[in-house]
Design goal:
Heme iron utilization protein-like fold; 1 helix; mainly beta
Length: 132
């Protein structure tokens, strides 16, 4: 499996998966997830706060994005600036057991904690609820 090397001052784990894409391309992918109601896994670490949930992209207003759980009781909203580092990875970058169609990783610009991130992964609906 080929892995892209991204030249950045960010932590090394970013260099091990996927490839850097433009913020505009990342926005197109997020809008596509909203339009198709794709099931997403979201993981985030910002400061002392971590989030892990499954849901669907429900709202995109400018740079503010809202992911909502299927039952409507859980929500994660975040706003991105156009200077975030966007890394795209597809199913070839993950083991088969991951059942991931593709992922976006957002890393924040210098001056932020280099370990902070938001990741959104489209899950393969065929395998989401099957036991291994």
């Amino acid at each position: 499996m080929k892995q892209a090397k991204v030249q950045t001052k960010q932590p090394q784990q970013q260099n091990k998966i996927g490839r850097q894409i433009s913020f505009e391309d990342a926005c197109l992918l997020v809008n596509g997830w909203r339009d198709s109601l794709a099931l997403l896994s979201c993981q985030s670490k910002i400061g002392q706060t971590s989030v892990c949930m499954r849901g669907r992209m429900r709202d995109i207003a400018g740079l503010k994005t809202t992911l909502t759980t299927n039952d409507g009781f859980g929500e994660f909203a975040f706003e991105l600036a156009s200077d975030v580092l966007c890394i795209y990875a597809d199913s070839r970058d993950f083991p088969d057991e991951a059942k991931v169609v593709c992922s976006l990783f957002f890393f924040f610009p210098s001056g932020s904690d280099p370990d902070d991130y938001i990741s959104l992964s489209e899950l393969d609906n065929q395998h989401v609820f099957q036991k291994p």
